[in-house]
User: Fold this.
Amino acid sequence: MPGKNEWRPIPNSTQELAIDTRVDQTLFCGTRGCGKTASQLALFRSMAAKSDDRCVGMIIDTDYKSLDNLIQHAHRIYRGAGRFKSSRADYYWLFPNGPRLLFRAIRGVDGCKTYLGDDIAFLGFNELTKYPNLDVYNTMMASLRVSADAGIKTKVFSTTNPFGIGKLAVKRKFIDPVPYGVPYIDKVEIPWLDNKVHIERKSIMSLRGNYAENPYFTKADIANLLQGVEDDPAKYAAWVLCDWDAAGGDGLFSNLWQRDVHVLPDFPIPHEWYIDRAFDWGSSTPFSIGWFARSNGDDVHHNGETISLPRGSVVQFAEWYGCPKDRNGKLAIGTNKGLELTPRGIAHGIKIREGKWLESGMIRKRPAAGAADTQINHKVRADIATIAKTMGQYGVHWLPCYKASGSVIQGIQAIRNGLQSALKRDHNGFYVQRKCQATIETLPFLEKEDEDIAPDQEDHAFDMIRYRLLKRGATKPADISFPRAAKFGY
Assistant:
């Protein structure tokens, strides 16, 4: 029986369900104040109570300062059950019967190396969306193991809300596959001697909590939370609603992006519209190619619907995003992994796509040469053709993009102006057709750092779009000064 002062979960709450999770990997997301951190700590306490010193847990954050709050929670949750120990580089809670819970800061994959030889029974990730992708999460899985005779079932328990640089990767792994509270099995094919076998690797589930479940989260606490987000729709969506589909985070475009305005049906492009493409090079990371059309102001009639766009509006009507597909056949957006195709392979893929679109009537003329990453013009060796020259040999030509000092900030402003013009139904608006999956899934969620784009994000579609919008003759925001055409080959 629990002691008088022992912490207990809120009865009949998501918190109670989270502590009793039966799956291998759990994500507890939710609003502020729903008890995510307490659940994470309490789950390890329940494991430690039935084990010995072979039960070692680790809760991970990006820095030690962020772990201070976790350690304070531990003093409340673990009251009367062991003690906290610390030294210069070692923070852990020691339980009376031997289990230990380590508190560790790991910023990137390199930081995982210290622990890859360890046997960890419990992994906890505090605010998982702080990481730009799931590389640290996946790498640490190599340490998730215990001796066969320990009688311990390993667990991974992560907390977060839909706010942070890694929102997209977390959403695709935990939120998109199945509804909250429904487990799913992650299957994998592994090599085994001379054969391959299929195993059910992990059961995965997401849970969503709400502050309304927490009787200790007072009306005053709720009022303070609402006051803290009243001028920030992105934080309101994440912290109050736990809305994964809202454009959130400290976003570059979150206050402008409206899916019902900026995402258009997949209609064929009229012959009179100017079309071209843009290209952001990538090999180990994804490349991004987008095809764009500029409206001449005429209405488009498609499937009984009339699409009216002001003259000068720019529509991204197709894309090729160079990343692998996941086990379900969908683009593995959020992994930031590329296809490592050669320039010849990419050029060949472009020609095939454009040929099929001409045959189907999706477009009625070949796209013009568009702006591309200046990296494709870099000459590595005198005897090796540049990427641009190689692609040109296969009939795919590019113009150099505008990439002078300050061009990223100018590109951000160009996209913001395009989104804002679309909201006003003004000329020079920027729109995306529904089939442009990578753009729709990455552009609205990009976060900023000061007035620039935050590092370590999947920003390839963003780069490709800014190259297009900063191309001379394309949409030109009034507050952006463009270089002389001759200097950049336009």
